[in-house]
Design brief:
Elements lengths: L10 H23 L5 H22 L7 H36 L2
Length: 105
Amino acid sequence: MSETAGQQHPIGIYLKVWLLLFILSAFSYAVDLLHVEGYLRWTLILIFMFLKAGLIVTIFMHVTWERLALKYLLFAPLIAIAVLIILMAMEGDYTFMTREIFFDQ
């Protein structure tokens, strides 16, 4: 039988990511415990959420060790969707502003 050596990742990186996820979760809970309100609250929660999701995808789903073509396949549509959402939000704000200017007189 031929024996092929599999790729081994050091356990230390997984432990460091677990610790970092724990710290980011603690920060997320601290935002709630400190009664941060308004846009700052949602901004902080979203930042911590995206950081945790990014760590999970890159390390635990092994995207870090994948080929560049697969990374483009995974992330290009997400970036395109994010850009389109931002453009739609900008257009919605513009439409709301123009309606307030012209119809509230």
